[in-house]
Design brief:
This protein starts with 6 loop residues before the first strand and ends with a strand. A hairpin with an 8-residue loop joins β10 (201-203) and β11 (212-215). The chain has helices spanning 15-26, 38-45, 65-72, 85-88, 90-99, 110-126, 137-149, 170-180, 221-225, 244-260, 266-280, 317-333, 345-349, 351-360, and strands spanning 7-10, 31-35, 56-60, 77-80, 102-105, 130-132, 157-164, 185-188, 191-194, 201-203, 212-215, 234-241, 294-302, 307-315, 341-342, 364-370. It has a 7-stranded parallel sheet, sandwiched between helices. It has a 7-stranded mixed sheet with strand order 10-11-12-7-13-14-16. A two-stranded antiparallel sheet has the order 8-9. It contains 14 helices and 16 strands. By secondary structure, it is of the alpha/beta class. Helices cover 41% and strands 22% of the residues. It has 2 domains: 7-135 and 318-350, Rossmann fold; 137-316, Dihydrodipicolinate Reductase, domain 2 (2-Layer Sandwich).
Amino acid sequence: MKTSYDVVLYGASGYTGKLTAWKLAERGIPFIAAGRNAERLQAELANVPELKGHDYSCVSVTNERKALAELFNGKKVVINIVGPFMQLGRPAVEACLDAGCHYFDTTGEIDWVLLLRQEFGPKFKAKGLALCPANSYMFTEGNIASEIALETPGIDTLDIVYLGDSQVSVASTASFLRMCTNPQHYLQNGELVMWPYATSYSVQLPGEQKVLNALPWSGGGEPVWFESDPRVRNCSVLVSFRNQAMFAAVFGMLRKFEAECRELPQDKREEIANAWGADLTKVEPPRENPDVNRCILSCHGRGNTNSISVILRGNSPYAQTGVLGAEAARRVLRGQLRETGFVSPAKAFGARSLLASLAEEGYLTHEVKSV
């Protein structure tokens, strides 16, 4: 067994943390599983059959910059799954900077992504380190499809829709409720424009007969990544779910939030979103079933006179997130990181390379059509 490790999985005891641990084990990557309680970590990871015989160590650590920097010292990669990120993420990022570690997380909170870009991007760049948030199903699938669409000359407008069909984890629920009650943006003529609060939109995806309701869902990472990209003028992201009853419940909460909470102080709004999230999802779901938990990502690209459609059909979005975290670690350790500083997953490792990794494990296929 190793006495030192290159990878820290921070927040390993949660739903997504265990899936990422599974995918690290499949790649033969030893890791430190870190969190508030080592005994809980041991108990939770003991439930992951793929970890039997794998080399990992469970470590208790407080969510404080100094303590985390001491843990991260000498390591190369940190995968942070401790959210809501806007509430809990700063110490891990600061500690990565102090310890000289590449940082990856699974956030969907775009106010967090914007904060990282503005406050920490140049600092990570100066140290030759990657700062890569939202390295997860949402919003990496859209990032991959967008880059494939942009391979067609003249495409400058990206219209992206996610359709998922998985049960939501406890941590994800807390994260998405707070992010949907904060400003959400799309890219219009090279500038970020705010979506209206608590407003739903109708979408129809390729191969689907039904019209579904969708939300901006924090606005998506793609408009932020492409904001300063000369190839892209416009980019919008909407998210829908097969379970429209759940969608209706979430949308009802957002309407209630606007009616009752919008004028409250920020800290009170965050507290309320956390409480509502805890009420909405109380129990972690089982591991996804590929025959049931399927997803579609549709990206329509448009130029002046041409257009392209990139469709990703897949399954198990949470397991995809585990793959993306483990692949980030493996590629950094192999010296395959392409860019440093604030960087999207596709820029860090290549869109088609990430697509191939997900396809190899049976999680994703893609189709490109001129339309």
